[in-house]
Design a protein that fits this description.
single chain, about 300 residues, mainly alpha, globular
């Protein structure tokens, strides 16, 4: 049986829903940050989401060897750094669509980080896609008048951290079931960033019904439901196939931000985001072609 046949339409539908929930998470988070310090928000969000998933993951976790639990927590600590950069970038960002496309560079950088740190050999498409993505990022910076904004730098740092995290994830916790691993990571991130927030953040919490509603939506929809569905869908297909569909998160985020916040993009921003998305497609062209051949026979020939 081919890899493609092991990726049924149900997996694609679930992954599409995951990208919509993830994109919604950008909106939920940005709204909630109006009344909560960023690290406190993301820390408590992940902590509560992890506790919800713990109810489903406990049977597997209780049977897991201690060394695997330690490895899962270690990866969670790395995840804390990546998500910390992300939430600070989101806090300072004035354009969610642009930030989402910059953050998506993490997918492209995975094989580059693997080459630099672990000696892996990236596919040829990576070296074709990389200059395209860099040109896209340059155009986003040119739109600000030859100036790289703080939010852009933070999102680039987040992308680099996520690329490193994905590489470590596949090596350190190989063969660990996805649900207990995700639960450990969410609990680790939640615990670490909540402690960091209580230690360093001084911004007052201004909770009202609206802020609380956005926070609950972030926990239930953008975290618990999103990760649960993503784990389920990834178990029905291959990681490479799933990553192609998950690239749509940036597109949905830009569309949602345009609808909810009235964001618009200047021509240079549109071109920059378009080049970044094109680079992602080039990097995953083998799997993009397979998907096109399945859904639109003859389209990728």
């Amino acid at each position: 049986m081919s890899t493609l046949k092991r990726a049924p339409w149900q997996a694609d539908a679930l992954l599409l829903l995951v990208t919509i929930l993830a994109a919604g998470g950008w909106i939920f988070s940005k709204e909630a940050l109006a009344g909560m310090p960023p690290l406190l928000f993301i820390g408590t969000r992940f902590l509560l989401a992890g506790l919800i998933l713990l109810g489903f993951a406990w049977p597997a976790l209780s049977r897991m060897p201690a060394r695997r639990i330690r490895r899962g927590i270690f990866v969670g600590l790395l995840f804390s750094v990546a998500i910390g950069f992300w939430i600070m970038g989101l806090k300072t960002s004035n354009h969610l669509g642009e930030s989402a496309f910059i953050n998506s560079l993490g997918i492209l950088l995975v094989p580059v980080v693997a080459k630099l740190l672990f000696g892996d050999r990236p596919p040829r498409t990576t070296w074709i896609a990389l200059p395209v993505a860099l040109l896209g990022f340059a155009l986003l910076s040119l739109n600000a008048g030859f100036r790289v904004e703080t939010s852009q730098l933070l999102m680039v740092c987040a992308a680099l951290c996520f690329a490193f995290l994905i590489n470590v994830n596949t090596r350190v916790v190989r063969n660990v079931p996805a649900l207990p691993l995700t639960t450990l990571q969410l609990l680790s991130v939640g615990t670490v960033l909540t402690i960091v927030s209580f230690t360093f953040e001084r911004q007052p919490v201004a909770l009202n019904t609206s802020i609380l509603g956005w926070f609950i939506a972030s926990v239930l929809l953008a975290s618990s439901a999103r990760f649960f569905l993503q784990i389920t869908a990834q178990g029905m297909t291959t990681p490479s196939h799933a990553s192609v569909v998950l690239m749509l998160e940036a597109v949905w985020t830009a569309l949602f931000a345009a609808w909810w916040f009235g964001e618009t993009m200047a021509p240079l921003q549109l071109l920059g985001c378009g080049l970044i998305f094109t680079a992602l497609l080039i990097n995953r062209w083998y799997w993009v072609r397979k998907i096109l051949l399945r859904w639109l026979p003859g389209a990728a020939r």
